[in-house]
Amino acid sequence: MLKKIKNIFFFISFCTFVIFITFYYFSDENIMKTNKIRSSYNLNFITEIYNLPLLKNNTNDIIEFSDEVEVFKKKKKKYKFWDLINK
Predict the structure, then answer these.
(1) 3-class DSSP state for residue 26?
(2) Is residue 17 domain-resident?
(3) Within a domain: residue 70?
(4) How far apart are alpha carbons 52 and 28 in whole angstroms?
(5) Buried (b) or exposed (e) across 8-31, using 16+ Cβ within 10 A?
(6) Count of domains in the chain?
(7) 55 in a domain, yes or no?
(8) What's the confidence (pLDDT) of residue 43?
(9) Angle at 13 between CA 5 and CA 32, to 5 degrees
């Protein structure tokens, strides 16, 4: 009997918690606060973007191409497998 009462109490507590949270989440006050915070973040973001310094591009001729693939192909061991099949 005590276990049932305890379970009912936990269930009712959980339900009230969920109900209060949903009422608060969907309230007009919370929606207005969320929109104000989002708009302030947006304004701060825009001002920070315009204040960013532009850096000079210094990446010219950084990549040096080499023929390592061709060298690997030349050094690769030649297998005779296909020659055995063709005979």
Answers:
(1) coil
(2) yes
(3) no
(4) 36
(5) eeeeeeeeeeeeeeeeeeeeeeee
(6) 1
(7) no
(8) 87
(9) 170
pLDDT tens-place values along the chain, 87 residues long: 899 999 999 999 999 999 999 999 999 999 999 999 999 998 888 888 888 888 888 888 777 777 788 888 888 777 777 777 776
> Which amino acid is residue 71, in one-letter code?
V
Q: Is residue 67 part of a domain?
A: no
pTM (predicted TM-score)? 0.48
Euclidean distance between CA atoms 49 and 42, whole angstroms? 11
Residue pair 24/30 in contact (Cβ under 8 Å)? The answer is yes
Domain that holds residue 10: 1-50
